[in-house]
Automatic annotation (TrEMBL):
Keywords: Glycosidase, Hydrolase. This is Glucohydrolase. One of its GO terms (biological process) is oligosaccharide catabolic process. The keyword Hydrolase applies. SMART domains: Aamy (SM00642). Gene3D superfamilies: Glycosidases, Golgi alpha-mannosidase II, Oligo-1,6-glucosidase, Domain 2. Residues 14-430 form the Glycosyl hydrolase family 13 catalytic domain. Belongs to the glycosyl hydrolase 13 family. One of its GO terms (molecular function) is alpha-amylase activity.
Amino acid sequence: RAAEPWWKSAVVYQIYPRSFADSDGDGIGDLGGILARLDHLVGLGVDVVWLSPVYPSPQDDNGYDISDYRDIEPMFGTLADFDRLAAAIHERGMRLVMDLVVNHTSDEHAWFRESREGPDSVKRDWYWWRPGRPERGAVGEESAAPNNWGSFFSGSAWQYDDASEEYYLHLFSPKQADLNWENPEVRRAIHAMMRWWLDRGVDGFRMDVINLISKHPDLPDGEPAGDGLYGDGSPYYVSGPRVHEYLAEMHREVFADRPERVLTVGEMPEVTLEHARLFTDPARGEVDMVFQFEHVGLDFGRHKFDVRPLRLTALKESLGRWQTGLAEVGWNSLYWNNHDQPRVVSRFGDDGPRYRVRSATMLATVLHLHRGTPYIYQGEELGMTNAPFASVEDVRDIEALGHYRQAIRAGEDPARVLDGLRARGRDNARTPMQWDTSEHAGFTTGTPWLPVNPNHATINAAAALADPESVYHHYRRLIALRHGEPTVVHGDFTMLLADDERLYAFTRHYRDTTLLTLANFTGEQVRIPADLATEWATAPLVLGNVGTAIDPMTLRPWEARVQRKG
Ligand code: ISL
């Protein structure tokens, strides 16, 4: 196993800088704030810090709209602050992974400004400019757009530019213009930028929507989607025609001949297991692992804001299939949360006072005992919950606001649309980190850009550190277990009780050791099926969330346990 890459036994911690810690009182988190809080991560025991984007940006999508790839957003600090932070992370034995957002740039990026100068600009072809279709409507209107694709943030995926009388493609907001990867100069500029960051000492990249970078060059209309307002362009850009070629080229140009082994993780909405196997097959040299979205889409109705209950059997079928599918070739990333997802304890657990800690630690146990690299999103280790947004006035996220406007225009009931935002809106993940009981939870001395969750009076890092039974200490124990027990890293995976709607059970096996993970996804006591109970009755407890006295026949509400044989 000596040749195994370091990231197979690593745990990654994601920081969303604007909501982590504010060092200068402007109400927005920054690099100085992160530096001052590194001990929190050291105590937890994580190996890698991933920073969501800290580059200069108009912040239309909180930094996922980058206007300069080689600098730091002034609100977050300077390049010198960045170098200090990187050095401090390295001194503590951790690594640093940067977000890489290269499907699109800000419309304020110098490349786009130049591209926008007109059809003769040498950078015109760096983006997707197309004339309108006058036969469909008045040029300049959405109806005459080059095709019928809708954007991820509602509305058309095309923005009209008056000066040149053409439209440009934006799969996300109009301020996030899609780069044209067909153009080799675009790819070379991105590779050079990536090498520049690696030379500065970063240890890897989390690649934003990297499976969307290759578009079918004809940009064909899509079939009517969802509410029928726009066409679904995804067949023409999800894992598009040249994406594997582009990632293999990037690997050759940026990563292949560097002395150090870096981490590359591709964020890939709608990626299939079949493509993921190709993306992560080491022999192909594309990326180390992908973020897939299947398990966080099982409770969607017509769309993400249309809330349906999760069926546990569906979750097990999905995660189990990914475990098996990437067992021989490739590697999984494991996550419940990130800055785009609602808080998992509110979504799949119970965030009420009685069972919040129990259900959060149960969910953590299940995830961290799977095979793959776990990602912890800031505040998840405290069992932070969704936020109580009183009205749409409290919502900041561009995706949620776009959906709200579109749904109201389509005649939906505002109260119900707001319920959807409360359950699924991305701001749930973006309320400030809860450090202590002080006014703004120790996040800032100013006014936070998004209000702190009032429950910081009880849910906060200071309280969690002081309580050995807290969610924080449970995460710490799970991370230590992964570092000390090779079965958690390397063991093969077998799902048990696949048809059970209440219990999640699986084993991991490596050499002479088998670990059983058994978890109750309900707030009721549940009997363990007799043969499983008998088989494991005397196996010692490695880790659990209800103390050390386990009942071999039943699981208490939201109980999780890991037992060992061999
Ligand atoms: O948030 C989502 C769930 O509805 C997705 O549509 C999300 O936009 C998608 O997963 C891509 O996410 C990434 O790229 C976006 C950015 O807004 C997200 O924050 C980022 O994680 C565009 O850069």
